[in-house]
């Protein structure tokens, strides 16, 4: 019996996953993958049993984002696999390595109408880089190696593998074993492209850097500092790239991507050259920063840019981002006359935050919430920001100092990734505090994972901004239609709800309670849920203010 198990496909898959360095698999088993689930018992891999497969896919997504290694999620065929789709799509659109493995009906019945069968390979195809089914036991080593290689190689993304139920328990060929892991190395930047880019910068009147998620993936933080300090070029980040350039740096301009013309946009308005570093067009549409398609763009990324009529590349530099930045910095003489009025832009953001910090109204203003969250969190601590009006406030205002410390879904912009994501973040970075901030809509979409976190003893804090509404949609309706409908709801008692799981529950009843409660919860080493009423009348005030705002450019 033992010999037969040793040689099974299930066993070999597990050995191949160990060979890839997999430490965690997030998922729910089903009848059709009990052998694979069982084989994990004799491995170094910890299976995190969840309460909804969608949450497992978000956990794999965030684990992949924080570690640079593909996160792994697992489910049964049919409904289980379908539930993995959202997190797989989120990883794909956020350029994160993820491997989803599910059961499928056996080859003995998959060709005909049959219980729980849908074409899963076809279903995953549009949201993955590679989607395939294991058709023969001997293919396991190659398919698992390929899955990880494809998922992790730039541009990273999701991969799907279906394992038919009858194949899973078959014996494997004796010689089948995990393949050596080799890593795709970066190209050095091309000297001729560097020279052409240097030429563009030499003639620039005003240059600006846009740093995207690829800069964080490429560990370009230090090189970005060297580049911008030497050439005195200010740096904006995407929502996704938040933290890859420290927001407390004199050359920082803040995050680009808000739905209206934000302060940082004034920097782009004045620039004639954009140095886009690790930016993918999925992060936000280039028309927002280049509305007249008249700016020269230097695109530094490990692969060519997507085509867009507002993103016409003057020079593309493909290869390792830090090396490209250093080479370009070395090839250009610093200029003293770049002037994007960066200090003015920074001051506008700072004023908003400073006013928020001392605002004592209740329900609490978003600006005060952001200021208190920042005060409670260390520079290395991780905040996951869910999708909603909350994202707009956090992305614009939350000062971020390190890459991957403020995680936002901005490719797919899905709701409800942040609570399960917090569990994975704590596993990936056990020494850091992890806070998930979300709307009351997003919270109830995946709050069942509180049970997972408590059972698996993975502490985190969730802060819910309570407005009893799908706030972002209400905002947009009011902005564009002058009224809103079908967006309001009621909530359960969040404190009792948290306590019913065995978690700590807090309700903020006065503005001064927020910061101490956050601090207590973060120090608590358990799962804590904090419900805080938010004053979203600020939403319309913000878009009105930005709409009317006139930025006076000071001459150089
Ligand atoms: C899974 C999913 N469903 C719907 C949407 C569309 N959507 C974006 S934000 C939003 C409202 C979010 O409400 P809530 O979580 O309460 O946060 P708030 O906007 O109030 O801060 C909706 C419905 C989405 N992005 N993702």
What percent of residues adopt helix (DSSP H or I)?
A: 25-40%
Largest sheet: 6 strands, parallel
Low-confidence spans: 1-6
Question: If helices are DSSP runs of H or I spanning 4 or more residues, what is the number of helices?
Answer: 24
Morphology: globular
Task: Going across the biggest sheet, name each strand in turn.
Answer: 2-1-3-4-6-5
- Number-wise, the strands total 18
If you average the pLDDT, what whole number results?
95
Structure description:
This protein has a six-stranded parallel β-sheet. A six-stranded parallel β-sheet has the order 9-8-7-10-11-12. Strands 14-13-15-16-18-17 form a six-stranded parallel β-sheet, with helices on both faces. The protein has 556 residues and is α/β, with parallel strands linked by helices. The N terminus is likely disordered. The chain contains 24 helices and 18 strands. Helix 23 links the parallel strand 17 and strand 18. It is globular and about 75 Å long. The structure holds thiamine diphosphate. The site of thiamine diphosphate (TPP) has 20 residues, from helix 17, strand 15, helix 19 and helix 21.
Helix-strand layout with pairing:
Layout (H helix, E strand, L loop, with lengths): L1 H5 L2 H11 L4 E4 L6 H6 L6 E4 L3 H15 L3 E5 L3 H5 L1 H9 L4 E7 L15 H5 L5 E4 L6 H13 L5 E7 H4 L22 H12 L4 E5 L1 H5 L3 H11 L3 E4 L13 E5 L6 H8 L2 E5 L18 E6 L11 E6 L2 H11 L10 H16 L8 H11 L5 E4 L3 H9 L8 E3 L9 H11 L5 E6 H7 L2 H7 L4 E7 L4 H11 L12 H8 L2 E4 L6 H9 L4 E7 L3 H12 L8
Parallel strand pairs: 1-2, 1-3, 3-4, 4-6, 5-6, 7-8, 7-10, 8-9, 10-11, 11-12, 13-14, 13-15, 15-16, 16-18, 17-18
Helix pairs in contact: 2-8, 4-6, 4-18, 10-14, 12-14, 13-15, 15-16, 16-17, 16-23
This protein binds thiamine diphosphate.
């Amino acid at each position: 019996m033992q010999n037969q198990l040793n040689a099974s496909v299930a066993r070999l898959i597990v050995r191949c996953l160990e060979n890839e360095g997999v430490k965690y698999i997030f998922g729910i088993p089903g009848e059709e993958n009990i052998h694979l689930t069982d084989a994990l018992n004799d491995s170094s891999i910890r299976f995190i049993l969840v309460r909804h497969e969608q949450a497992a896919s978000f956990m794999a997504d965030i684990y992949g984002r924080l570690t640079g290694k593909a996160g792994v999620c697992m489910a049964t065929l049919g409904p289980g696999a379908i539930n993995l789709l959202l997190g797989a799509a989120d990883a794909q659109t956020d350029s994160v390595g993820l491997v989803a493995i599910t059961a499928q009906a056996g080859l003995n019945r998959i060709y005909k109408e049959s219980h729980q069968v849908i074409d899963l390979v076809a279903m995953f195809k549009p949201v993955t880089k590679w989607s395939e089914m294991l058709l023969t036991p001997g293919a396991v080593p190659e398919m698992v190696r390929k899955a990880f290689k494809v998922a992790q190689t730039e541009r990273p993304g999701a991969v799907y593998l279906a394992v038919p139920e009858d194949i899973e328990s078959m014996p494997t060929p004796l010689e089948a074993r995990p393949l050596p892991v080799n890593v795709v190395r970066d190209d050095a930047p091309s000297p001729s492209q560097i020279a052409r880019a240097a030429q563009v910068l030499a003639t620039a009147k005003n240059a600006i850097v846009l740093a995207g998620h690829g800069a964080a993936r490429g560990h370009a933080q230090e090189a970005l500092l060297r580049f911008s300090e030497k050439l005195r070029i200010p740096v904006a980040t995407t929502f996704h790239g938040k933290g890859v350039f420290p927001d407390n740096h004199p050359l920082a301009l803040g995050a680009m991507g808000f739905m209206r013309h934000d302060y940082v946009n004034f920097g782009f308005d004045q620039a004639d050259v954009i140095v886009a570093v690790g930016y993918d067009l999925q992060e936000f549409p280039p028309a927002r920063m280049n509305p007249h398609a008249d700016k020269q763009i230097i695109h530094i990324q490990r692969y060519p840019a997507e085509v867009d009529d507002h993103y016409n590349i003057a020079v593309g530099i493909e290869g390792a981002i830090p090396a490209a930045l250093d080479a370009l910095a070395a090839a250009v003489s610093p200029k003293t006359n770049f002037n994007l009025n960066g200090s003015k832009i920074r001051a506008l953001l700072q004023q908003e935050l400073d006013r928020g910090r001392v605002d004592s109204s209740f329900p609490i203003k978003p600006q005060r919430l952001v200021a208190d969250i920042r005060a409670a969190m260390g520079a290395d601590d991780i905040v996951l920001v869910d999708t909603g009006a909350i994202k707009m406030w956090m992305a614009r205002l939350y000062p971020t100092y390190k890459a991957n410390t403020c995680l936002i879904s901005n490719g797919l912009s899905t709701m409800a990734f942040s609570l399960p994501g917090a569990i994975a973040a704590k596993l990936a970075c056990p020494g850091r505090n992890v806070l998930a901030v979300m709307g009351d809509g997003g919270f109830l979409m995946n709050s069942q994972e509180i049970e997972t976190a408590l059972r698996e003893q993975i502490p985190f804090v969730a802060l819910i901004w309570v407005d009893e509404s799908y706030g972002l949609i209400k905002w947009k309706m009011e902005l564009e239609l002058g009224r809103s409908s079908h967006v309001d709801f009621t909530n359960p008692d969040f404190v009792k709800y948290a306590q019913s799981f065995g978690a700590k529950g807090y309700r903020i009843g006065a503005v001064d309670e927020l910061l101490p409660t956050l601090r207590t919860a973060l120090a608590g080493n358990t799962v804590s849920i904090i419900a805080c009423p938010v004053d979203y009348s600020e939403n319309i005030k913000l878009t009105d203010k930005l709409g009317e705002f006139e930025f006076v450019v000071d001459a150089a």
